[in-house]
Design a protein that fits this description.
Layout: H1 3-27, E1 34-43, E2 51-60, E3 65-74, H2 86-89, E4 93-94, E5 96-99, E6 104-113, H3 115-120, E7 124-134, E8 139-150
Antiparallel strand pairs: 1-2, 2-6, 3-4, 3-7, 5-6, 7-8
Length: about 150
Amino acid sequence: MSRRTVLSVVAGAVVLAGAGAFALAHAAGPTPPRLTHSIARYSAPDGGRDGSFTFSTEVAASSGVQSLKVLAWPEKSGLAAKRPTAAEMREAESARCTPAGEDTVRCVYTVTVTDADAASFPRGSWHVATLATAADGTTTLDTEAVDFTVG
């Protein structure tokens, strides 16, 4: 075969392979949201100053991200036996999300912790549950997205 024919065959194969990969990606349907770089920080009130709980993460979804719901829960609670459901998580508080890329947002949830709050919190390990909802309606529920300790 001539060099020109070989190059044409190779170029055609590359184009067909690319088209096949594109078709497979779209045939698989929408991808559910995924969380990365999740971090939780708890600081107790100290010396008359309030403390805080902050959870941050990046959420990506091919259709865009609609919302992220957040719930912190103690390991030694009723939720340990019966994890939060997606329906229950829809009632949780929302994180504030800002664009961080093409289909990615950076979400932060912060709440003030008073002396009274801290006194009522069970000591020990806590988990953060999240419900991420994409613009196309697909969801991802993670009942233990990240852990932190209340001392």
